[in-house]
Amino acid sequence: MHRRLMTALAAITISTLLVGGFPAPAYAATAAGRDSHDSAAMGAYFGVVNALNPVNYRKHPNWNYPDSDTFRNGDVLWLYCYFLGAPAGPNNNPLWYHANNGDDGGYGFVNDRYLNTPGTAANPQPQAEPCMPAGEGRIYPDNAVYTAVNAPSTVLFGNHPAKMWSAGHGFLTGDTMELYCYFFGASAGPYNNSLWYMAYDRNRGTHGWINDHNLNTPGTAANPQPQTYECWDSGI
């Protein structure tokens, strides 16, 4: 499932895994990021809390996109990998895990507020590897191509579909972007656009997450129109 995504990412070093000032777990030092259903992924088991009634997993690291599977208090989930995405819960926790329940087979994104993990919303402490770290990557030759806009000075790619977690590689208006896949994550830009793409910059040979407001794609923040695959769609 979605193997194309992971083969598109090159190996990275621990320096690339420094996200928004939070160091990645030590066991991620030589990892290249993980396919969220890869049995070799290094993660951890944690228990579900704060779910008095069944709670739906999310298809994206964003509360507004529920999936059909559910989890509840007492479940123990395997955390494959993490994203920093749209804030959720009473304390606006931005930490999300792609998780699996081995008992019932349910899986999807779970916000950290529903797990007995260490850390807080203000001080997230990821307990698995980054799902898709940004950095040097391969081209995405068969995907939609659009142009970067609204970037008169350098705008940094994201390490996650959230504007505040920059990866270090920048782009400018006029750069040609190959769009690989999309997620709905944290809101960004003057109209709070939540649509993000994993993109390859043909001009600079780098890739990362770019918000839709920085692309000349159709649609608006209120009416997003994804132009490529959903990142973890079963078709990838």
From TrEMBL:
Stretch forming the signal peptide: 1-28
Keywords: Signal
Name of the protein this chain belongs to: Ig-like domain-containing protein
